[in-house]
From TrEMBL:
Keywords: Oxidoreductase
Protein family (similarity comment): Belongs to the short-chain dehydrogenases/reductases (SDR) family.
InterPro entries on file: NAD(P)-bd_dom_sf (IPR036291), Sc_DH/Rdtase_CS (IPR020904), SDR_fam (IPR002347)
Gene Ontology MF annotations: oxidoreductase activity
PANTHER family recorded: DEHYDROGENASES, SHORT CHAIN, OXIDOREDUCTASE UCPA
Protein name (Swiss-Prot/TrEMBL): SDR family NAD(P)-dependent oxidoreductase
Transmembrane residue ranges: none
Organism for this UniProt entry: Thauera sinica
EC numbers, comma separated: 1.1.1.-
Primary enzyme class: oxidoreductase
């Protein structure tokens, strides 16, 4: 990255909270925000992984236990951030779960869990982060990690698609709410394709090996590969920084072209 780009994405002095920071995209996001100068509080139900990420970041990192489905826990986590860091500038809602299978066998408990973690969690995060950010008068940014499943349905992922569709419209509504209120807080969503993270471990088992899964999935992505967690983290950094100051209520597909068009061959 050249010096001009580095300045554009500078986050020195900003305080960020990253949910799901113990693993995959959240961990990469925590590192990427810290690399741009932010102080980063990792939030997760996985304490061991969360502390590992925070420790790897070093003095700019911290950890707070947070179950994103629990409103009281959000209040405690944000109280902790404000009391230790003095403010919150960036919220990255990355925590999420994936469950799939035959729609007729989708258990109500699994549906409820998908909605709770993937939609209610970000809702609670947005609600309480806005309260924490609005009073500061400083620019705030919320970045919600959705999925291409937010806009493209799959027969074996109905609950996941529904939860990400909800997240998509939540993000747009929050953006308009903040603008309407005159809060200098932006809210956007990122929709990744398949990302080679721990979330795909159970799917790899179904393919027999990770290599077989990666090979099969890569064929579905026009650029011919899965995304890396760092690919998604870079997009979070962009939407969180002042270079994206006019960007709110929108969505960024980080999908190697997967949702851009239709099948490549129509002439045999
Ligand atoms: N991996 C993919 O292929 C892919 C594709 C598109 C979108 N996404 C989305 O990206 C986000 C991150 O996925 P990932 O690939 O890094 O998955 P991951 O499984 O590697 O990480 C998810 C993290 O969320 C945490 N988490 C789960 N439930 C939580 C809860 N109730 N409270 C707090 N933390 C909780 C987990 O402990 C874990 O650290 C998710 O929202 C996912 O839906 C992933």
């Amino acid at each position: 990255m050249n010096p001009i780009e580095t300045r554009l994405m500078d986050l020195t002095g900003r305080v960020a909270l990253v949910t799901g920071g113990a693993s995959g995209i959240g961990r990469a996001t925590a590192h990427a925000l810290a690399a741009q100068g932010a102080r980063v509080i990792v939030a997760d139900i996985n304490e061991t992984g969360g502390w590992e990420t925070a420790d790897a970041i070093g003095t700019a990192g911290g950890f707070v236990h947070l179950d994103v489905t629990d409103e009281a826990a959000w209040c405690r986590a944000l109280d902790y951030v404000i009391s230790t860091e003095g403010r919150l500038d960036i919220l990255a809602n990355v925590a999420g779960i994936g469950l799939g299978g035959d729609f007729e066998d989708l258990a109500l408990a699994d549906w409820n869990r998908l909605i709770a973690v993937n939609a209610t969690g970000p809702f609670l995060g947005c609600k309480h982060a806005i309260r924490a950010m609005a009073g500061s008068g400083r620019p705030g940014a919320i970045v919600n990690v959705g999925s291409i499943a937010a806009t493209h349905a799959a027969p074996d992922l109905a609950g996941y698609c529904a939860s990400k569709g909800a997240l998509r419209m939540l993000s747009k509504s929050v953006a308009l709410y903040c603008a309407h209120k005159g809060y200098p807080i932006r809210c956007n969503a990122i929709h990744p394709t398949y990302v080679d993270s721990e979330m795909l471990d159970p799917i790899a088992a179904l393919y027999g090996s990770r290599e077989a899964m990666v090979q099969a999935m890569a064929k579905l992505v026009p650029v011919g590969r899965l995304a890396k967690p760092a690919d998604i983290a870079a997009a979070v950094v962009f939407l969180a920084c002042d270079a994206a100051g006019m960007v709110t209520g929108t969505e960024l597909f980080v999908d190697g072209g997967q949702t851009a068009g239709i099948a490549p061959s129509h002439f045999g």
